[in-house]
Amino acid sequence: MPEVSLIWIEEAGLEGLDPAKAAKKAGVALSDGGLVEAAVVTTTEARAPRSLVNRLKGYPVKWLDLAAEVGGGPLALRQARAAAAVARAAGSAALGTMAQRYTRQPNQEVLVAGRGLAAVAAAHQAAALGHPVLLALETTRARAACADEKPAEVKRALAGLPAQVEVVTGTELVELLGAGGDFQARLQGPRRTSRRRFGAVVLAPPSAYAVPGDMPATAEDITLPVSRLKPKQYQGGEQWLQAAVIAPLGPGATAHGFARAVTAALALQKRPRVQVTLFLGEAKVASEGGERLYRDARRQGVLAMRVEPGGLRVSRDGRKLSFDDPVLGEPVDLRPDLVVLSEEVTGRAPAWLDNPLVTTAWDQDLPDHPRLQAGRTARSGLYLIGGARGAAPGDPRRAQAAAAAADLHGLLSGEAVAVPAVRDVLCASCLTCVRVCPHGVVCYAEDHIAPAPAACLACGVCTAECPAEAIAPPGWSNREMIASLAAGLKAAAGDKLVLFACRNSGMDAARALSLAGHQWPKGLLMVPVNCAGRVGVQLILRALSLGAGGVLVAGCHQGNCRSLNGNLRAKLRSGEAADLLAQVGGRPEQVRFMHLASNQPRALAQAVAELAQTAGEK
Amino acid sequence: MLLNDCDPGFKHQVAAEPGGQGIKACFACAACTARCPVAGHVEGYDPRRLIRLVLLGRREEVLASPLIWLCSTCYSCQEVCPQQVSFTEVLTAIKNIAARAGYGPPATEAVIDQLAAHGRLLEVGEFENQRRTDLGLPEVAEAPAHFQKVLGVEPAGGKS
Amino acid sequence: MAVKTIKTPAVIIGGGVAGLAAAIDLSRRGLSSLVVERGPRLGGRVADFCCKATDSCVRCGACRLADLVRRVAARPEIAIYTSAKPVAAEADGDGWRLTLEPQRNNGPAPVVELAGGPLPRRSQVQAGAVILAVGATPFDPSAKSRFGYRRVPGVVSALELEGALEHSLAELAGGRDPRRVAFIQCVGSRDESLGHLYCSRVCCGFALRMARVIQARRPGTEITFFHMDVQTYGRAWAGELAEMREQMNFVRAMPGEVTAGPGGPQVVYAAGGRSQTAEFDLVVLSQGMRPPVGAAALSQLFACTRTSDGFLGSDAEPVASGAAGVFIAGSARGPMSIVESIEHGAVAAAAAAGHLQPLVREAAHA
Questions:
Q1: With contacts defined as CB-CB under 8 Å, which chain C residues touch B34?
Q2: Which residue from B2, B8, B49 is facing A275, i.e. has the nearest CB?
């Protein structure tokens, strides 16, 4: 085993601590700057001096955010906490695991498949970021615009594409395997099918305007959708021409759909002797200029008529609308000469995207997931943008394309953490890892488990769930985690407790508390994980058997987990561990799970205090 | 009620009348009604409802309504309106239209007659002029012609 | 003392979520940047927002700040100065030359930042592009005096409620445990009399999320929601809104005034064509967003245009400012949510990178 050196970097939060004492207590040598076999550094790789980072390249190094773990209180307590944290990091550093990155270089080529402005803009942006791009248009160049877009705008964008973008037409993506860094795509062209590999894939499926299903069924000869309305064809005579414009009424109504309805109403109202009644559920004015437009329409004379859900009824002949006036509360009828139905953007992702072997989950299951922005899907490296992602035509689609391109560039240029290592000797090919990986990283190809090279976020869900200890992102195997727990708990003083904290929530909260001088229980050992999903039954029970009187697992809130359901797995496994503990005569309340966000430090402090109290009641 | 039977031109007519410009901007938030002191005392008096009747084009109902004459012109509605409808002014416009259309309430008509005939709400007769003479003040002439012109009524107290 | 000149491809004014997102996106594109934050800490207004998850995440995006700060800290090509402000700017070829002045910040010392530090002295910056990400300013509800803000006890702004949500609401309600809470929407928004002809977009979601937190922590608390129209704040909410309509009292009316009553603030509103009065323990005014306080000065400094609503930028384009090499990011451009601001920051960065690329290419050939 290599000898572990402690490299102490002084920073805020570590004031007054004695590095030599911490090293001694942790059983490591304080580095004098000489030859290093393995090291623990008391800061993160990002904050460490560049020269140190360069010097330590190729050595087993544990970067320890010590200031986040120590906290406030009497010096002796802080000293003891620092020593335990250093010991924990040293425990795995001693195993000599190299902080390896990719074993294979991620493929840099990008496939953009679909049509419309979003597709063209994404291809342009990815090329501008230095990626070779294949833009596979489902259509001809001339018909590349989606039905809800202005053809000229898309044509212009296509003409402006740089030479690094290869454009093929009449080509559809029909099959996709793999994940970020190594996708295998099957493309169906007009004449033949081809297979190609890409580092990232951006889907921009066709979108169109469609009338929502909850619109009243008025007579066909007087009804048309907004997109077919030609206001100049209408004017009243001696009788006013009565037009009904029906804005999206249901709960899914968008500001874009509302603005289009109001625009139509305003154009019609400007015609001579035309009276427009604008039916609406809620005035969705939250688009840019939406309130101004709505005001202009009213000033022009448009009569805004708010109807409650189901409150707009049609006569059997489809020529009379009945509703209650929202102010008078009286029933009102209208026999319109013209009914204009508003539309919403709709786009469907290709059916194969719903296949769990391709995508674990995507936006349709997780709308507005705060960590699936920039067009991301749960499958790392696969993006879905455009109308199918709810973007209105024009600038919103350009913006989505730019965000997706920047995100995939980050992925392919090395923001992802590592490639899970698979020990083929132990692997039983049960495919549990393929099934549970939230990012679609672990694939089964050519008779063995083959993780993609740039997609892994080292959440460790595969490791926690693998029955054979055959797979782990480097640094996160059971062997390493248990070695760290053993060393850390051995060095910890007082009543021992373990906090497994997700880096996206628990550790941020812990860091905020520590830097604000919060005094942690003396024997609390923090174990940062990239996702609470890494913490399985085994780690929890091991922590208890190594002397911890209580274990707390802090994961993100439901619906906020970057690894989709890692938090829920952790909750489930914590419950199982508690049950097992009860069966062998322990107290189940010694194992706890909590949902937490990075900005909820007080909740964490309280939960740790409660855990300490529980552990103290023998 | 059938909306087709209403008069879509009515709101434009009100908006064209001095003071009525703001009426079409109303988005029925009801702040005016909440704040109106008259609404608290008179059953059925509701600024938002009156605006709505105009917007719907229920012309006769509005002009014939006794409610339009009850505004105390406290301007509370105008102060709270987020859309600058200026309901107090709008109501003046409506009242002018109503009066022109012959919908003035009898009391108001009587006041107009009085003004037209005498130039003021109190008649200045022989008795008052005698008193004025005694005090060294000039006599007040009966109903100067320009009053009638301003009020748009026939001279000699006749109905318009 | 000699004035130090910092050369950087891009300078970002404002260290809130939009500015940080822009810096990260630029760095992904291989471009260094300097973030200049007026206050003592990063994060802007989002740093004051707490998590509003009840039984699950409500997708407000406030937790993303920690993530952004961590990523900024991990990228050495992003330099950060806090407590600094641009006081002069002039176009310099294709770029800009700025003078930064240290700002004295009173108040509590900030929690130690992961990255950056205060600007030590007056400095000059030469940058190829400028991104203005100064955020919006919350509307001051006392300008709508009829709602009783700072006059009637128990009337607070939504941001004040936010600040107390993690602590004690009783303090806000004058010591009473608030069991009846009212929200008044659109205070300073959708208001032509103020010249605010826009919807602030985020207040409905903000208020309803806080209302849910209150009900989750103190079951049985009666919530009344005075509003005109409920705005969309994400597709996931369509279903949840129906649920909230069951749990809360949605009143579609703009109140006329808020007065002091014997048992708490009283809201006067119209229902059934008449004026009604309801008493609450706490009345929350959902203040809207205004153009940033320094919008006039900034638009003068950088010769950039303002939108019809007075925010920075131009109506037709999402991030352009009307001045070459100057781009707008986040709610300085108009009301937007946390998540929208983060995405907008990335869009501004993409535009700035487009502006810088010819320069970079030239530099490479020089």
A1: 253-257, 268-270, 275-276
A2: B8
**Which token pair is C18?**
């939009």
A612 falls in which pLDDT band (50, 70, 90)? Answer: very high
CATH superfamily of B3-100: Alpha-helical ferredoxin (1.10.1060.10)
Nearest to B8 among A240, A304, A327 (CB): A240
Q: Token pair for residue C57?
A: 């995440």
Q: What is the pLDDT of residues A270-307, one digit of tens each?
A: 999 999 999 999 999 999 999 999 999 999 999 999 99
Q: Six-digit token pair at C179?
A: 């069991």
Q: What is the pLDDT of residues A371-414, one digit of tens each?
A: 888 888 888 899 999 998 889 999 999 989 998 998 999 889 87
Spans of all domains in chain B: 3-100, 106-151
Query: What pLDDT score does A356 carry?
Result: 62
pLDDT tens across C86-145, in order?
999 999 888 999 999 998 876 555 555 566 788 889 999 999 999 999 999 999 999 999
What are the distances in angstroms from CA A35 to CA A5, A10, A30, A50, B41?
Answer: 9, 21, 12, 18, 92
In chain A, % of residues over pLDDT 90? 71
User: Which CATH fold topology does A212-342 show?
Assistant: FAD/NAD(P)-binding domain (3.50.50)
pLDDT of residue B154 exceeding 70: no
A53 touches chain C (CB under 8 A): no
Task: Inspect the interface and report whether the beta carbons of C57 and A556 lie closer than 8 Å.
Answer: yes
Q: What is the mean pLDDT of residues A498-506?
A: 96
Residue C275 touches chain B, beta carbons under 8 Å: yes
Q: Is the pLDDT of residue B159 over 50?
A: no
Interchain proximity B31–C192, CB inside 8 Å: no
What does the pLDDT look like over A541-584, one tens digit per residue? 999 999 999 999 999 999 899 888 899 999 999 999 999 999 99
CATH tag, A421-465: 3.30.70
- Nearest residue on chain C to A253, alpha-carbon basis: C232
Decide whether A110-209+347-415 matches A212-342 in CATH topology. yes
The pLDDT of residue A343? 96
Which residue ranges make up each domain of chain A?
1-99, 110-209+347-415, 212-342, 421-465
Q: What is the CATH number of domain A110-209+347-415?
A: 3.50.50.60
Q: Which residues pair with A114 in a beta bridge?
A: A137, A204
Q: How many CB pairs under 8 A join A and B?
A: 53
A301, A331, A333 member nearest B24 (Cβ): A301
Q: ∠C346-C349-C354 over CA atoms, to 5°?
A: 130
Q: What global pTM score does this model have?
A: 0.92
Rounded to a whole number of angstroms, the distance from the CA of B49 to the nearest CA of chain A is 6
Three-state secondary structure along A185-224? EEEECCCCEEEEEECEEEEECCEEEECCCCCCCCCHHHEE
Closest by CA to A66, choosing from A23, A97, A35, A101, is A23
Residue C336: strand, helix, or coil: coil
Q: Which domains does chain C have, with CATH numbers?
A: 4-136+291-365 (3.50.50.60), 139-288 (3.50.50.60)
β-pairing, A241-246 vs A338-341, is parallel
The alpha-carbon gap from C98 to the nearest alpha carbon of chain A, in Å, equals 28
Q: C155-196 pLDDT, tens per residue?
A: 999 999 999 998 888 889 888 889 999 999 999 999 999 999
CB C14 within 8 A of CB C137: no
**A326 with B28: Cβ contact below 8 A:** yes
C184 Rama class: left (phi>0) / alpha (psi -120 to 50) / beta:
beta
Token pair 């990815």 is found at A126
The complex scores an ipTM of 0.94
C109: phi then psi, degrees, rounded to nearest 5:
-65, 140
Handedness of CA A228, A229, A230, A235 (dihedral sign): positive
